[in-house]
Structures are given as C-alpha cells and as structure tokens.
Amino acid sequence: MTALDHRLSIAPMMDWTDRHFRYFARLITRRTRLYTEMVTTGALLHGDRARFLRFDPAEHPVALQLGGSDPAEMAACARMGADWGYDEVNINVGCPSDRVQNGRFGACLMAEPGLVADCVAAMKAAVDVPVTVKSRIGIDDRDSYEELAAFTDTVAAAGCDLLVVHARKAWLKGLSPKENRDVPPLRYDVVERLKGDFPVLPMVVNGGITTLEQARAMLAPFDGVMIGREAYQNPWALAAADGLIFGDPAPPPTPHDVLDALFPYIERNLTEGVPLNAMTRHILGLFHGRPGAKAWRRHLSEHAHRPGAGIEVLRAAAAAVARGRILHTGKPVAGAPADRIAPRFARRGRG
Ligand SMILES: Cc1cc2nc3c(=O)[nH]c(=O)nc-3n(C[C@H](O)[C@H](O)[C@H](O)COP(=O)(O)O)c2cc1C
C-alpha cells in the first residue's frame, strides 16, 4: 500500500475517533485509513502533547488532523506529528463551530485560501509525510463553484497532496455543528466537477456515505471515500472493507475475534490508569444487529462508568452476550462467548 492509499478512510471526529476507538476500528478493518480527532496547535504547543499524539502502532495507516492557521505553528505541529510516526498530516478546513471560528481555523479558512496555502507550504517544508486538507464545498453565501475551484487551485499550487471534500457547504452563523452535518444538501456533483477540473489532485469525497457498496461505486469518479458517523455508530458496516475496497482476500473478523483482541488491549490500558468507560464507550456497537447486542450494550452502559470498574465488567458483558445468544437461538453457538470467550477469561481469573 502506498502512503497515499486513501480508497477508504474513517473521518476525523472530535470526541469519537480517539485512540481507543481507532484501535477498535483497526481490529475490524486492517486497511482503512484512520484519522485522529482534530488537535489544535495550541493543545500541542502548550498542552500535554503525549496525551494528544499517542497512538498504538497497530493503528497505521493513521493521519493526524490539525486545527490552526498560523503557518509556523502548523509546521511545528506537523513536524511533531511526523516525528511521532503519523502517516499524514491533515488541515481542518471544514469544522464550523464557534470555538473554531474564534480561533480563526476550521471552515472559516475557506475564505482565506492564501493562508491555507501558506500553512500547506510551511508544513510541506517541515515534513516528508503527505500534507492534506479537509474542506467543505463552500461557506455561507461564498458557495460558488468558482470560489471552490480557486480555493482548490491555491492549496494545490502550495503542494497539498490530497483534498478531502465534505460535499456540503457550512453555514458559519445560524446552524450548529450538528445541523451543519445534515441541513445543507449533499452535492456530490460539485465535488465530481472539481475532480474533473483537477484530475491530478487526489480527491476524497465525504458526507452521507453509509455502505461499502456506495463507497465502491464512488471510487469511479474519486480517489477515495471517507465515512464518518456510520463508521462510528455501526462499525460493522466496514467489516468487509478490506475485501470489497482493497481486494484483500483475508476473511473479515467476527465480533468474537475483535473481543478477543480487545481484552489484552483494555487490560493493558486499565493498568496504566485509563478508566474502563473511556474505552468501552466506543465498543457499545460491537454486537450491533446480532443476538445478545442489547445485553452487551446494557451491561457496559450500566457498569463500565462506575469508579474502579475493571476487566470483570467486560467479562460479565461478554457472558451477557452469550446468555442473550443462547436465549435467542436456544443453544450456544460454537465460538460464541458462552463456550469460548467468557470461560476463557474467567479461567484466567484476572481483574
Ligand atoms: C461527533 C463528530 C465530530 C466531528 N469532528 C470533526 C473534526 O474534528 N474534524 C473534522 O474535519 N470533521 C469533524 N467532523 C465531521 C466529519 O469528519 C465528517 O466530515 C462528517 O461527519 C460528514 O461525514 P459523514 O456523513 O460520513 O458522517 C465530525 C463529525 C462528527 C459526527
């Protein structure tokens, strides 16, 4: 796989795509590119850098998304990211929140293509990994195709290696960030026209894509597809991605394979003082659509946030899935937690 294989990626999502979710996602798909939450230059330059940059080697390929607009600071943070081992550094030019606007970054930067280009150029001079931009198709009433094309031209000329386009505009005033992900209509046609006009610039389309079939069809006009909410809320939607999108012949994992791999990861992090809930909040959808899913979700939701909650909560949740499965089918299923995972971890007697 080349450094710029972007055929499928999971979008940067604040509070959602932290390192624990990314580790979980990586167990479901080995090939899909992962993005961090947006990290501001202020957080990296003045905050607990390790907390924001830390990731597990299993997460590769993984991209760091930066929020900022000072070229020298963006370059310094890109260098930090590259030194930490990130495979790509991405600039957030799509987030419309007030906080981000006050800091003069995010979607409001679409109105300042020269500044984004200065950031790209400074970052390119600082790192060897690809420097990419994630944008919208416009903001407020500055949403003409000509303006989008001029923005693209400017950042491409500065050396931007790839553009991810969320195929809707953002209203900086009047809509919340959540509304800005649903209300402005999706305009894949606009992104397709942009790709047609910039055939050499690798372009990834984002927004409203919920199935791998849809993603695969979009690989005809585009170089890649980025999936956000669906990947988080229904991570199994991506289980067949390695085969369907990347042509990898290895079979997709089962939820039990993933759970197996999660136990040592969670135990290790608990030992380091990470609260159980910080990890389990991302895996409530592990058995989505399968027998026992409700019991799994309920057990974790009720117990994982309690002070001192340890690996025994996960073990009990696995046992609850097994019971749910037995109730549903009338008998334990080979390889299900009832006869495999729960007793195995129970036997170890840890936690
Ligand atoms: C909870 C949440 C947090 C988000 N945080 C970011 C972010 O930090 N940076 C960013 O560029 N986009 C962010 N987004 C936008 C997504 O990356 C993506 O562009 C958007 O959700 C549309 O894709 P989707 O329809 O596949 O979800 C966020 C979206 C959600 C739902």
Overall description:
The relative contact order is 0.11. The chain has helices at 19-28, 41-46, 49-53, 71-84, 98-102, 113-126, 145-157, 188-197, 212-218, 229-233, 241-244, 255-271, 276-280, 293-303, 311-329, 341-348; strands at residues 8-10, 33-40, 62-67, 88-93, 131-135, 162-166, 203-206, 224-227. 44% of the residues lie in helices and 12% in strands. Mean pLDDT is 91; it is low at 333-351. The longest helix has 19 residues, at 311-329. An eight-stranded parallel barrel has the order 1-2-3-4-5-6-7-8, surrounded by six helices. Strand 5, helix 7 and strand 6 (162-166) form a beta-alpha-beta unit. With 351 residues, the chain is α/β, with parallel strands linked by helices. It has two domains: 8-244, TIM Barrel (Alpha-Beta Barrel); 255-348, Four Helix Bundle (Hemerythrin (Met), subunit A) (Up-down Bundle), CATH 1.20.120. Helix 4 (71-84) runs parallel beside helix 6, helix 6 (113-126) runs parallel beside helix 7 and helix 15 runs antiparallel to helix 16. Bound molecules: flavin mononucleotide. Flavin mononucleotide is lined by residues 11-16, 37-38, 65, 92, 94-95, 134, 166, 181, 206-209, 227-230.
Helix content: 40-55%
N→C terminal distance: 39 Å
Low-confidence stretches: 333-351
The ligands bound in this entry are: flavin mononucleotide
Structural class: alpha/beta
- Secondary-structure arrangement, i.e. CATH architecture of the largest domain: Alpha-Beta Barrel
List the total number of helices: 16
CA radius of gyration is: 21 Å
Count of beta strands: 8
Q: What is the number of independent domains?
A: 2
Estimate the global geometry from the Cα principal axes.
globular
Question: Overall pLDDT, averaged?
Answer: 91
Beta content: 5-15%
N-to-C order of helices and strands: EHEHHEHEHHEHEHEHEHHHHHHH
CATH uppermost class of the largest domain: Alpha Beta
Tell me the CATH topology of the largest domain. TIM Barrel
Main sheet: strand order: 1-2-3-4-5-6-7-8
Q: At the fourth CATH level, what is the homologous superfamily of the largest domain?
A: Aldolase class I
Oligomeric description of these chains:
single chain
- Give the biggest beta sheet: 8 strands, parallel, barrel
